[in-house]
Structures are given as structure tokens and as C-alpha cells.
Amino acid sequence: MKTKIEKEITTWFRAINVEDIPNDNGICIKVRGQQIAVFNFNKRNEYYAVENLCPHKRQMILSRGIIGDMQGEPKVACPFHKKTFSLKSGKNLNGEDYCIKTYPIKIEEGSMFIGFTD
Ligand code: FES
Fold first, then answer.
1. Which residues touch 97 (CB under 8 Å, ≥6 apart)?
2. Does residue 54 have its Cβ closer than 6 Å to ligand 1?
3. Domain-by-domain residue ranges, the chain?
4. 53: CA distance to ligand 1 center in Å?
């Protein structure tokens, strides 16, 4: 059964071969003019895609963030000032107002597809 977000997706864009994403790390790709940070969270056997922009000081940096786990929640910490965001929801895990955009993904035949709702 599809989630509400999956039902709204109009385009699945083939973004990258998953083998090109470093283990337990991220990489920045440009998709449809947007910088997107994609992560291979190998320890959890999960992949994520979020905007590359850290909203704290508006730096394009999150693909170089440090991924980890906060009480079961997969997260990325910005390398500049360590603001931390959920990789699932984009929520700021430091209790601050700003958050990041997350993208629905699916993995098929060794490729990551990112869903858009335009
Ligand atoms: S620029 Fe990312 S935490 Fe400050």
C-alpha cells in the first residue's frame, strides 16, 4: 500500500547508481537543478536523500555531514556547527525551528530514484 506522499509523486528520477555513494557517507548530486545530498547508511542498510542546504547559515554542505543515530533516528550533523537533522523527516533534532527537505527514494536494479511531486 502506498503512503500519501508516494501517491502524490508524479516523477521518479533516476539519480545515481547506489554503488557510487560511499559507504556510511554521503555525496552531493544535482537533480533537476537542485543540489541533493544522498546517503548510503550502510550500517542500517538504508538510503536517504535530503536537500544539500544547511538552513543554519545557508551553506551547501549536508552531503559532507556526519551520519549517525539518535535514539534510533537516523540523522546527519552539519560539519560546520553540528546542527543535526533527521534523515527521515528532516526535523531539527536540536529543538530549533528550521528543518530540511527530505525526498522519497526507491532503489531498483542498483539505482536510486528520487520522487518529485511537481
Ligand atoms: S551551517 Fe550548518 S550548522 Fe551552521
1. none
2. yes
3. 10-117
4. 9
Give the tens place of pLDDT for each residue, 15-41. Answer: 999 999 999 999 999 998 999 999 999
Angstrom distance (rounded) from CA 98 to CA 106 = 26
CA 28 to mean position of chain CA atoms: 10
Is the separation of the CB atoms in 75 and 83 below 8 Å? no
CA 52 to centroid of ligand 1, rounded, Å: 11
Q: Is 22 exposed, middle or buried (0-12, 13-18, 19+ CB in 10 A)?
A: exposed
Q: What is the CATH number of domain 10-117?
A: 2.102.10.10
Atom of ligand 1 nearest to the CA of 82: 3
Q: Each residue of 47-105: pLDDT tens digit?
A: 999 999 999 999 999 999 999 999 999 999 999 999 999 999 999 999 999 999 999 99
Pick from 15, 8, 78, 80: which is nearest to 48 by CA? 15
CB 64 within 8 A of CB 79: yes
Q: Is 59 in the pocket of ligand 1 (CB under 6 A)?
A: yes
